[in-house]
Design brief:
mainly beta; Thrombin, subunit H; six-stranded antiparallel beta barrel; 16 strands; globular; serine-type endopeptidase activity; EC 3.4.21.35; Peptidase_S1A
């Protein structure tokens, strides 16, 4: 069952033929999304908004659904992934994201939702941390070719830019991750995924601290064989053949980092997560570098015009 790896917000979802869940008209996620809701942390948005969180994102699953952490999944060294963003709506984790510019966060288009707060410099979601920064979103810009339809579920172009209302102060705990311009790294290349998503599947277990896992790129041919008719040139697969290591529910929009650059954005995959020979699917960032750069440039130009006013 292919599912976007977004955190469900306790709203009603309808199952489709492809077994991905789509939102009902209730005020749920305006996206294709299924994920069990994570634990509710106390809301500490008073004074400097801390982080009321609930679901973490990263992966760990045994094929028999037991609840232990999988070999290879581990708690990230605190603040070792300083580009990692947490996207919250009403104090609950929805998705991950990546800081790609002081004023821009990249995430998955299926994470589209109003009312985000973006947290950077976070490791533990359940408490306020020194050096964390919180920003509201000025505008969400999904890729123009991304389509959401209740009758045709298509994960292609699953990428979105979030413009922040004010720039992030770049520090050792919040910094930009370079985009990969490389279209095709060799299969077997070791990369890292990170997020606050469930560490077990199909049962869910949401950690409070950022999780990491080292996984390998799979060949495009293998990816197409595993998911016939669903893989486009804008996607790539990564995971371990033996299973047990994967991104999972709540990790959507987070980074796949290869050779120190952003190579993929967590998009979708099979459920339960982490099955042998069922890799996760990621948006191939190199296909969108021009769109990302041009979108940021256009918005900057537009803002300069507004600032200057009529001549």
């Amino acid at each position: 069952m292919a599912t976007p790896r977004v955190q469900q917000m306790n709203h009603q979802f309808l199952v489709t033929q492809s077994k991905i869940l789509t939102p009902s008209p209730s005020p749920g996620i305006t996206t294709l999304g299924f994920l069990p809701a994570g634990p509710q942390f106390s809301n500490i948005f008073s004074s400097p908004p801390g982080i009321s969180q609930e679901s973490p994102k990263i992966l760990n699953n045994t094929t028999n659904g037991t609840n232990g952490f999988l070999p290879g999944g581990y708690t990230c060294l605190p603040h070792s992934q300083p580009w990692q963003a947490a996207l919250l709506v009403q104090g609950r984790l929805l998705c991950g994201g990546i800081l790609v510019h002081p004023k821009w966060v990249l995430t998955a288009a299926h994470c589209l939702k109003e009312g985000y707060r973006v947290y950077l410099g976070k490791h533990a979601l359940g408490r306020v941390e020194a050096g964390e920064q919180v920003r509201e979103v000025a505008r969400s810009i999904p890729h123009p070719q991304y389509q959401i339809s209740p009758t045709h579920l298509n994960h292609d172009h699953d990428i979105m830019l979030l413009e922040l209302k004010s720039p992030v102060q770049l520090t050792s705990r919040a910094c930009v991750l370079p985009l990969s311009h490389t279209d095709c790294l060799p299969p077997g290349t070791c990369c890292r995924v990170s997020g606050w998503g469930t560490t077990t599947s199909p049962q869910v277990n949401y950690p409070q601290t950022l999780q990491c896992a080292n996984i390998q790129l799979r060949s495009d041919e293998e990816c197409r064989q595993v998911y016939p008719g669903k893989i486009t040139p804008n996607m790539l697969c990564a995971g371990s053949k033996e299973g047990g290591k994967d991104s999972c529910e709540g990790d959507s929009g987070g980074p796949l980092v290869c050779n120190g650059t952003l190579y993929g954005v967590i998009s979708w995959g099979d459920f339960p997560c982490g099955q042998p020979n069922r890799p996760g699917v990621y948006t191939r960032v190199s296909r969108y570098v021009s769109w990302i750069q041009e979108t940021i440039r256009q918005q900057k130009t537009q803002q300069q015009k507004w600032t200057k006013g009529p001549q």
